[in-house]
UniProtKB/TrEMBL annotation:
Residues 1-22 form the signal peptide. Residues 1094-1108 have a biased composition (Low complexity). Keywords: Glycoprotein, Signal. It comes from Sciurus vulgaris. The keyword Lipid biosynthesis does not apply. This is Otoancorin. One of its GO terms (biological process) is cell-matrix adhesion. GO terms for cellular component: apical plasma membrane; cell surface. PANTHER family: OTOANCORIN, STEREOCILIN RELATED. InterPro entries: Stereocilin-rel. The keyword Glycoprotein applies.
Length: 1132
């Protein structure tokens, strides 16, 4: 509770006065005093707020209240009353279910006051002359308490409509729900909603539910729809089943819930009402948001609209159809002009939840109609985003003039494949001849198709203009090689004006440490909008800290906080550290585990009484083990708000942390409030708790949280599956809503279990798979998706005369689009029998499938050769489109490729599964086809080669120019090369940064894996304070026989992040003392002292540092008493 020093003053005045009769005291203050006596502190505070809102507070009122308390012989002292009040409010914030009970007991006026205080955004202060109570701080702290929103939601449902004006209640409910995750709206909520609302209140409440539609579970959507329709049907007074209750107004009220109408109900809507609805201007906005409408229901609405007198072939009607246009099927006798109108309207169809394959097919049909009797060159600019459906051969047939004329459309279209962008950019630039600022500024999304060499060949002034213009937003989409091409020209050697300061956003991360050192005009302001690598941040923070004495200036400069070292943290005074800690707390995702470890130690040393409990997880495990049971709730809340995986990397230590968590929970989650408290810790609870420890009451909230867990263990997944089967029954009995709600959990079930789902709800299963694209999905789940697509496919067995293809059902473009990662289930013979046009249209989708086996990749490569001829005839866009399929090319086929463009090579280097022979072939092919020698390679060539550089001969690496190497050290430092190659790169690094004994923290971080090329002697001479600035990837790359040469002191100084990177093979080579040091580093022990626990348990600092005397001070959730018992319980 934000009890300020002024509150103590109030209590002092209250208890230093004399007795008074009840008649002398205002009734509301008398009531407040009685509530203080009863211990109803919330009620007393609410009465005080209410009194002050209508009465002027005078000094004598304090005397009167105190006198009244004295007259009742209440034996309070100032400290005991203050402690009682603080303890009460602290407990209510930690146990919001008890706050719910207290709010239930408030009278109507107190309830109104409570809702007003908690939900208004004003920064109110109660000024009681010698007292200031910060209501804004109370509100802020309360709303940060897990479970508080749940309490407000429940008490609003229970009491608000009985106590307050119904419109006020709708506003309160809306605010509470918008601040929640959506999990509050469970199906049983509708049972608590009033059925007799006034019309305006019902409409407003319906609007709240419409706004929260996307956050509402499917079963709850269905329940809310039923609640809304019951009220609407009652109000319509229709008794004849043949007459629909669905009027135009009711459709507007339903909003997005109109998609829950049945097909039969839609077909019953009268033509007059549907005509009124579609003629209303806001109907289009409403129809633009029905993202989860199905084809069947969309067709039904289109039919009713057509029957109402609206001509669906009329342009103005088409503009009103919203997302219904995505299912337009009246294509007979459609003319080209109307097809173009439809295509323009279909841009919004990408927002649909599913059915994208059907949309693509409709666009293709409309595209054919739109281009009838006209050439593509003539119609290109009027085809909207349907141009994405054009094949590469169609795009190649376009004239440069046509692309130039249509650039205003082409540059805004989303969904281009990289191969398409390459072709269109080349066409556009063929018309422009020269790459200038003006024509680059017109390219929009097509900018990524510009070649790296073309960027490097631009006039530097034009390129600087690009960096300053709006087109720069597209630079983040460039490949690393393209970005380096831009940077090479921008920071050109010999130019009098450095362009480094002009570089913004993600592009700045590519600037080398060497080039940063040359720039002298840096200040904290210019860095705020730039993304930084840690090596850049380390250098810049150290540089700027020499010239500014205000830590807040640096700590508030965007990502510069990444560069704070332990010595910087240790160098802060106690007062300065506490005053600036909020900058670290607000930027935790940017901090390394080592930085968090240093912050934890600093906090422990200067103000352990006020230490945020989550920081204990960064200290040695014995600190955590001593948290008393009485402080479990604040500990769980604090740790639950952080990411445990980023705080604790060592599995043994994580087990100890979770053991403490389980102890605090008593191995169970009793209710939904406990789920709120544990927060992200839910993802780490053992399978036994998930299976048997989560109560039925807590399960809905827990399931909502578990759905957001990125990496559950196999045991946890098995436990969730068992609970789901117990809660929801067998999959064959699931409803559509249940299936939707289970979404990410469908991957936990076997193919046999999912077969009924695939049969009943194929669209839902496919939509679920589509949402999880980009993640590795279980093979069983993919097979279920595969079967659902195959069963619903319109394709029939082929009569293709090709050998082995008769009777094979080959993949169609539509099937491939729907399947995504489930394309990995095709048999090689199915892929080989694919039609050529299907391959051309789908090659990039197939190239992105991560689950293809080597036989499948070989088959797809053979298909590519069938369709495109031998690799010697392939152009850049062909190679780029292959993706993983390129891995199947053998050495002789790789030798046939035209690898003269670094962009072609860069696309190949994105694959990480090349054999050494293949990589050498690609490297040699590039050098031969481009005519470059190793000594001629530019920095952007080195970046484009990427992992292919690891195939270089150790005799070739010395030939790389130092001027080019130093610009891309950080990029090369991300490569996992052989020890010999890394050793050669390390020798080049010495030329740039000097002898290893001269290396700084920023240099070591910049080098990345290159640092693993250090010799035994060089490694031994490194200052132990630098050890934590190795990158973890470098630690893993050290040969075992080299790593074992580190001293115990050096190993102890690795820090928890690098210690966690030590491999099993490296551990086996370590001595007992080295292993002990490694364990200390893993545990988060202090690197510079063997005695990491202070000799005394007494606090060495104060939690109120930095606050001037008499200033208002808010009580913080993590400050004050919570850790006090810890001090005496710790075993030293």
């Amino acid at each position: 509770m934000p009890l300020e020093p002024g509150m103590s003053s109030l209590l002092l005045v209250l208890f230093l006065s004399h007795g008074v009769t009840p008649e002398d005291l205002h009734p509301l203050l008398q009531k407040m005093a009685e509530e203080i006596i009863e211990g109803s502190y919330l009620n007393a505070l609410l009465d005080l707020i209410q009194f002050q809102s209508s009465q002027a507070w005078t000094a004598d009122l304090s005397h009167q209240v105190l006198a009244y308390l004295n007259s009742r012989n209440v034996a309070f002292t100032i400290p005991s009353l203050q402690a009682a009040m603080e303890n009460y409010l602290e407990q209510r914030l930690y146990q919001p279910q008890k706050l719910l009970q207290d709010l239930r007991k408030t009278d109507g006026q107190q309830f109104r006051t409570a809702m007003k205080c908690l939900l208004e955004d004003r920064k109110d202060h109660l000024d009681l002359k010698d007292v200031i109570i910060d209501l804004g701080a109370i509100r802020e702290q309360a709303l940060q308490s897990p479970g508080l929103n749940r309490t407000l939601f429940l008490v609003t449902l229970e009491r608000c409509f009985q106590v307050l004006n119904s419109l006020e209640c709708v506003e309160i409910l809306g605010r509470v729900l918008r601040g929640s995750s959506g999990s509050f709206l469970q199906p049983d909520v509708t049972e608590r909603l009033p059925q007799d609302l006034r019309e305006d209140t019902f409409k407003n409440l319906s609007a709240v539910f419409r706004d929260l539609y996307d956050q509402t579970p499917a079963r709850s959507q269905r329940a809310l729809y039923s609640w809304m329709t019951r009220i609407l049907q009652t109000a319509s007074n229709t008794t004849d089943d043949s007459v629909s209750w669905v009027s135009a107004e009711n459709l507007w009220i339903l909003g997005r819930y109109m998609v829950h109408l049945s097909f039969e109900e839609i077909m019953k809507i009268s033509p007059v009402e549907i005509g009124l609805f579609i003629s209303y201007d806001n109907a289009t906005k409403q129809l633009d948001t029905v993202y989860d409408i199905t084809p069947e229901l969309a067709q039904a609405f289109l039919q009713r609209i057509s029957s109402s007198g609206f001509d669906v072939r009329n342009v103005s009607t088409i503009h009103r159809l919203g997302l219904l246009v995505c299912f337009y099927d009246d294509l007979e006798l459609l003319d080209a002009a109307l097809a173009q109108v439809l295509l323009h309207q279909m841009i919004k169809c990408s927002h649909l939840r599913g059915f994208q394959a059907e949309v693509q097919k409709l666009k293709a049909d409309l595209l054919d109609i739109a281009t009838e009797n006209q050439t593509l060159n003539e119609t290109l600019g009027s085809l909207s985003d349907a141009v994405v459906g054009l094949t590469c051969s169609q795009l190649q047939s376009l004239s440069p003039e046509a692309v130039h004329s249509a650039i205003a459309t082409l540059n805004q279209v989303s969904g281009w494949a990289k191969s398409q962008v390459i072709i269109l950019s080349a066409k556009y630039l063929a018309h422009e001849k020269v790459l200038s600022f003006y024509n680059v500024s017109q390219m929009g999304v097509l900018l990524v198709g510009v070649g790296t060499q073309a960027f490097y060949s631009m006039d530097r002034k034009d390129l600087l203009q690009v960096l300053r213009s709006t087109i720069s937003q597209h630079l983040s989409d460039l490949s690393p090689a393209q970005k380096q091409g831009v940077l090479s020209k921008t920071i050109e050697v010999g130019d009098t004006t450095s362009g480094i300061l002009e570089i913004q956003g993600t592009l700045f991360k590519e600037v080398s440490l060497f080039d940063l050192r040359k720039e002298s005009r840096f200040n904290s302001s210019v860095l705020k909008e730039k993304e930084l690598r840690r090596s850049q941040a380390l250098f810049l923070y150290e540089l700027l800290s020499r010239t500014t004495g205000r830590p807040e200036e640096l700590l508030s400069a965007g990502q510069l906080i990444k560069g704070v070292t332990c010595s910087h943290i240790d160098g802060l005074s106690a007062d300065s550290f506490l005053a600036h800690f909020r900058y670290f707390e607000n930027n935790l995702p940017l901090l390394s585990l080592d930085q968090v470890n240093c912050l934890a130690w600093k906090y422990w040393e200067v103000s352990r009484l006020s230490m945020p409990p989550f920081l204990l997880a960064a200290l040695p495990a014995r600190f955590l083990a001593s948290v008393p049971v009485s402080q479990c709730v604040p500990f769980l809340i604090s740790l639950g708000k952080s990411r445990l995986d980023s705080l604790v990397l060592d599995s043994h230590k994580k087990d100890l942390v979770l053991r403490k968590v389980q102890q605090c929970l008593d191995d169970s989650l009793a209710d939904e409030y406990t789920v709120d408290i544990v927060g992200n810790l839910l993802c780490h609870l053992p399978a036994t708790i998930i299976e048997r420890g989560i109560s039925p009451r807590a399960w809905a909230a827990a399931l909502h949280g578990l759905g957001d867990c990125p990496d559950l263990s196999p045991e946890q997944k098995a436990a969730v599956r068992l609970r789901l089967l117990g809660q929801c029954g067998l999959p064959q009995n699931w409803t559509a809503e249940t299936t939707k709600d289970l979404g990410p959990f469908l991957v936990l079930f076997s193919a046999n279990e999912l077969r009924p789902v695939a049969t009943k709800f194929p669209d839902i299963l496919q939509q679920t798979a589509f949402k999880m694209a980009g993640t590795l999905l279980p093979k069983e789940f993919l097979w279920a998706v595969f079967e659902s697509v195959r069963n619903s496919s319109e394709e029939s067995p082929s009569f293709d005369p090709s050998p082995g293809c008769h009777g094979i059902t080959a993949p169609s473009s539509e099937d491939i689009f729907k399947l995504a990662e489930a394309n990995a289930c095709w048999a090689p013979e199915d892929l080989l029998c694919m039609e050529g046009d299907t391959f051309i249209r789908s090659v990039e989708l197939l190239g992105a499938v991560r689950g293809f086996s080597q036989p499948q990749l070989l088959t797809l490569k053979e298909k590519a050769i069938q369709v495109w001829d031998m690799p010697s005839s392939w152009r850049e866009h062909h190679v780029v489109s292959l993706g993983r399929i390129a891995l199947a090319l053998n050495v002789s086929e790789l030798e046939q490729l035209d690898l003269s463009s670094i962009d072609t090579v860069a696309s190949l280097s994105q694959q990480t599964e090349w054999t050494t022979e293949q990589a050498k072939s690609i490297l040699q092919g590039f050098l031969e086809d481009s005519g470059y020698g190793v000594q001629d390679l530019k920095s952007f060539h080195l970046v484009g080669l990427g992992a292919i550089l690891c195939a270089m001969n150790v005799t070739e690496i010395p030939l790389i120019k130092i001027s080019e190497f130093r610009a891309v050290v950080a990029r090369i430092g991300t490569l996992i090369c052989s020890t010999h190659v890394l050793a050669e790169f390390k020798r080049k690094a010495e030329v740039v940064f000097g002898d290893p004994t001269e290396w700084t923290s920023s240099v070591l971080q910049e080098l990345g894996t290159i640092a693993a090329g250090l010799t035994k002697a060089e490694l031994q001479t490194l200052d132990k304070e630098l050890m934590r600035y190795f990158q973890p990837s470098a630690i893993k790359c050290f040969p075992d026989e080299i790593f074992k040469e580190l001293s115990p002191e050096q190993i102890a100084s690795l820090g928890p992040e690098n210690a966690a990177a030590v491999t099993h093979a490296q551990r086996l080579q370590l001595s007992t003392s080295q292993l002990q040091s490694l364990q200390r580093a893993l545990d988060g022990a202090k690197a510079h002292s063997w005695q990491d626990v202070p000799a005394s348990a007494s606090p060495t600092g104060t939690s109120s540092a930095g606050s001037p005397p008499g200033a208002p001070m808010a009580w913080d959730l993590w400050l004050g008493p919570p850790l006090l018992p810890l001090m005496t319980d710790l075993l030293w």
